[in-house]
Fold these 4 entries.
Entry 1:
Amino acid sequence: MKIMAFSDLHLSASRAAALVEASHEADLVIGAGDFCTMRKGLPEAMALLDGIPAPFVVVPGNAESADELRAAAPKNVTVLHGASTIVGGLRVFGLGYGVPVTPFGGWSCDLSEADAAAMLGACGGADLLVTHSPPKGVADVTSAGQSVGSVAIRDAIARLAPKLAVCGHIHDSWGTEGTIGATRVVNLGPMPNWFEVAA
């Protein structure tokens, strides 16, 4: 399956246009959160992505809540937050929000490591793991050199061994990747990222 994935659109009309254009070549499109900015402009952000024709699976970032994303998403968009879906024979599990809790204050949608671990624990298997936050130690380094990813997400990847794990959230690590066991982990950023994953 040909997958196009991105994260952290943050209401960029030019980046959205490039994503919509590229999406016509995809069998599945993944959006790994932060479509708007600080809980503002989510309907407008989703409207920018309205031309995506492929099945479109998203998780909420820390800039929008799961309920807000479900309310704003068009009917052809599947919102995952502690849940899974099957697309073309691929099991896709998604978990949104900032993990661990961010320093950004009241607007940010975050989860503690314990809450994230409980939600990820509901997943019995996945071919593709989509999280907004990166796992601890992979594609999670800030401009100050701090590793700020999630231990719960790292542990889930190690346990589930998905074929691919994608994330966003840490802008300074966009485009970086690593591995946990045999799983490729990629911090996406707001540009088309292409993957081939067999069902």
Note: The helical segments are 13-23, 42-48, 66-72, 113-120, 151-160.
Entry 2:
Amino acid sequence: MKRVCVFAGSNMGLNPEYAKQARELGRVIAMNGFHLVYGGSKLGLMGEVANGALEQGGHVTGVMPRGLFKEEIAHRGVSDFIEVADMHERKAKMSELSDMYVALPGGYGTFEELFEVICWAQIGIHKKPIGLLNVEGYYDPLLQLIEHTVNSGFMPRVHGQYVMQGSNPKCLLEYMLDFIPEGYKSKRVPPAG
């Protein structure tokens, strides 16, 4: 795996740890020789993950719809910048360019991107690992909802295991590298920190 697609908020959020861990994720991606694929913005956690990768000399590809493309939003320092027609094309291009997905904290846009790739995995469109960087427990309510969905009979337990999570960027990526497509289970125990 060489290309990591990161979904992230275009805002910083209120907890400074979100930005710190976003930048660290970018650094870890680059230090492992992976390429970062993301939404192309210089703002919020999106900008932080890109800057982290760039600081380590990493290759960063930004993908942004023309309607969002403004001088003050687009990150001009990325290695490659791809303009697309709309949000649907953006998600398709990001997925095409990526071997795995990681979601940082974010809002509706991040959730929508994350759930789309989970749904694609569920119906067999891809067999790529999906991870949550669960900074300061940000995704705990979502993980509880997934468990509730399984326990309520709306999806099989194996589908509830499609999403891997960890609170440390390096440990999460290592965990995801051991990804086994059949059943989306890792050979390792989930990272503690």
Note: The longest helix spans residues 16-31.
Entry 3:
Amino acid sequence: MEAQPLRKIIHIDMDAFYASVEQRDDPSLRGKPLAVGGTRERGVVMAASYEARPFGVRSAMPGATARRLCPDLLFVKPRFEVYRQVSEEIRAVFARHTEIIEPVALDEAYLDVTENLLGLPTATAVAKAIRAEILERTGLVASAGVSYNKFLAKVASDHRKPNALFVITPAMGPDFVADLPIGRFHGVGPVTEAKMKRLGIETGADLRAWSLERLKETFGSSGSYYHAVARGIDERPVRAHRIRKSIGAETTFSDDTAAYEVLAERLAPMVDKVWRGAEAKDMRGRTVTLKLKFSDFSLVTRARSLSAPVPDRDSLERIGLDLLKGLLPLRRSARLIGVSLSGFSQGDEEEAPAQLGLGL
């Protein structure tokens, strides 16, 4: 069997993007703990500056909790039009170096630079050039991870944030993954992390010790992914112009509940996350779907389609709550709630071509 050519992948992640844009545009905010969002009733923190993070303030945290942790925390309303404009400037920098760009959000993207447009000798050189150009053009700092696959590039970009460039070579990959705490595996969320730790899986080495069959039995379809990345293997290509059929978010509770007030409160940050994702991709959908998983693991979904795209975040939440009310009274407690937005207008998907290249 012919060996797959070595890919050269860069993952770019802007440091505290929304907060950094606000601090760039308002000098009075610089050097101070800052949160973007969290100003609405039941609102959440969309982004936190690095000055706020030592207090424990994190994205997706309820605004009230963030205020308790950091009484001096400053809040500003998000300006998505500005963030989109800055994101377009950043993507213009990417486009100078490669045509194979997979945006993940306004502040994050994968780049396949196996062959780069400027003929730079290594992927590391490309990453250095991109970071310098972004700083010069926008005044903002980007962290970059360079590796031979998407999983490791993502891990690398986060390894020494902020303002970092880190490279994981093929020789480093398997050992690096072996030492990696399981919570830092992309694709392992808090619920799965807790389950893995209960099973004695604390690091990549622990995960690698499990057979493919056992992982599939325990984690279902995700078992194959965990088996591969525990060995530093990830064959997913960088896909340009990906089609998104839906944008969704869900959360699993530590305690099951059938109370409407509790479910409504837990739905709100999921609505924020979905709307953030839609804003980041400049996408508008007509269909809202609510999902509940019950204590017996049975599922129910309810959907509503509009004649025009959902206009704003509050409308998305209102429709989600209406769908939830339509399920009341619940005959059993729920362990998960989720919401998604779909019905987008999209074009054709293009596959990224396989390419050959030099070292990282």
Note: The longest strand covers residues 246-257.
Entry 4:
Amino acid sequence: MKRWNPYLDTHFVFDHAAAIAEAGVLDDSAQQVMGSAIGHYRARTVRPHLQYFDCNLQFPEPLRIDKVLPGSLCIVHVLDGQWQHRVDGHLNQYTLGGTHGLGLSESMEAVDQLPGGSHVRMAGLRIAGDFLRELAEEDPALQPLLGLLDDGMQFSAFNRCRALGSLLERLYHSPYVGALERLNQESLSLAVLVELASHLSGEPAQVAAAPRGQRDIAHEARRVLDANLIDPPGSVALARQLEVGETTLRRAFSSIYGQSMLQYLRQQRMELARTLLRQGRWQVAQVAFRLGYANPANFNHAYKAHFGHPPGAER
């Protein structure tokens, strides 16, 4: 039976630049895979013909992937960085913080292409077109989704539907493992389809929004911090932005992630520093200034305290 999706279920973590072609991301239908990456990528089939995926990747050299995509719907939320591709000759660009949908009524050639030094952190779903039609037959409320599969290719931005991005961020930051993780991925993936269908139909949600719990507050805070690692907002400003009290914000973040927001920021900045140093494109002082350190000596001290060795050892 022909595969419905060229992307294989896989999970890899590269702590140094490694060839994507060797990672087992795509099946043999991919015509060309060029480039290397640092970071993680995972894809899992959560229900037949429904695949969840996410990644956080740095591309030290130019990336190019030539492939053929089947008739399907792909929903993507970019948490950080950039992503773009050409499908049937048309350039599609995914904006930071936005949720986009790529609907194909039939198989089409696609090319993913990014410059060296770029990066992306995103989460998304891939749904087979035939499976989506079956779901819509079973539940008429999902009929609006079929409009995304009409007339060749449709590339759509759903910037007014913030719930979509929130659901995909919850998938990305899932705290579960094993069977619970799979159940969580399946339920939230289906919730994405329901939310998108409701958005396309123009009907408001029928259920009143529940008050945000600690997990939601912590995830929202982490999203903002990740997007502003170099110049993060203070706890007071962040609490005001999320419309919660500062004490509530601090307590929620510490409870969910087991560390303060300041500790989290230091950790993420050090991880970013290590990635940049291992790319070999910048000197230690350049990385220090890029991360907002006015004095490279302070960066050296912080790096050694975090990793146990000076930043120069990464080169």
Note: The longest helix spans residues 178-201.
